[in-house]
Amino acid sequence: MNLDWQGVIPAITTPFRDDLSVDHDFLARHCRWLIDNGCTGIVALGSLGEGATLLPREKGEILRTCVRSLAQRAPVVAGVAALSTAEAVSIAEDAAAAGCRGLMVLPPYVYPGDWREIKAHVSAVIRATDLPCMLYNNPIAYGVDFAPHQVLELADEHPNLLAIKESSADVRRVIALRELIPEQRLRILVGVDDAIVESIPMGAVGWIAGLANAFPAESVALFELTRNRQTSQALALYHWFLPLLRMDTVPKFVQLIKLVQQEVGMGSSRVRPPRLPLEGDELEDAHSIIAKALKDKPAPVFQTH
Question: Which of 91, 160, 197, 305 has an alpha carbon within 20 to 30 A of 227's alpha carbon?
C-alpha cells in the first residue's frame, strides 16, 4: 500500500449519531465505499471532518477505525491541526501509532504568526514522525499563506515533506510551485473543489476532495477525464458538478456537504456545535441545488482510458 499523493483523496466528514457521538460503524462503511468507487486514500480529521470539535481520544479512535476499515487497501492520512505545537506533535505521534500512512500538516489555529514561528510549528510536526507529510496551504481559512519560496525552503529541510494541498484558490500558485519544485520532489494536490479542472493542466496530480464524500465515482471520473485530456467529456461532467462543488468553498461547507451526503443516502446532516444544521432559506436553497443535480445527474457514460 503506497502513498504516492495522487488521484482523488477525499477529506472525509465525521459521522455523528443522534447524541452527536461518533458513528464508527458508518465511518468504516463510508471509508470502504469511497475506496470501492476509485478513491486512492482518505484524509481524516480535517476541517471538513470537524476536527476542531473532536476530543483527543476521539481523534485517535477515528484514525484507528479508518485504518482498520481499509485493511491495507488504501492509505489513511491524518489531519494535524491544534492550538499549540505540543498538541500538534502529539496528534502526529498518535496518528503514526494508529497506523496512518501520512500526515496533513496545518498551521496553528487562531495565531497566524510570522514566518519564523509558523516554520518552527510545521517543522516540529513534520519531524515528529517519519511519515510522509503534506503541507496544507489555506490562507483564506487560516490566515497563513505559505508562499512558493517558503514551501521550497521547507521541502529542502525536510525529506519527508512530499506534497502540498494547495487551497489558495489561485490556480497561478500551482504553476508557481511547479516552476520552483519538480513533481518528483513535491506533489501538488488541489484542496478547492471548484478549481480541479483548471489546476490539473498546470501541474496538480491529486485532489483532496470534499464532494467526493457523496459523489466519489463522479469525482474520480472528473479527475481522470481531465488528466487524460478528454476535454469535452470532462467539461460536460464539470458543468453538471459545479453547483455542488461550489458548496466546498463557503463557510458552511461542512453543513452543505453533509446535507448532500444525506440526500444521496450516504450519511446524515448532523454537525457538532458551534455549527448548527441549515434552516430556512439556506436549507431551501441547498435542497434546490441538490435536487436539480440529482435530477440532471448524467448517466455513467464518462469512460476514461
Answer: 160
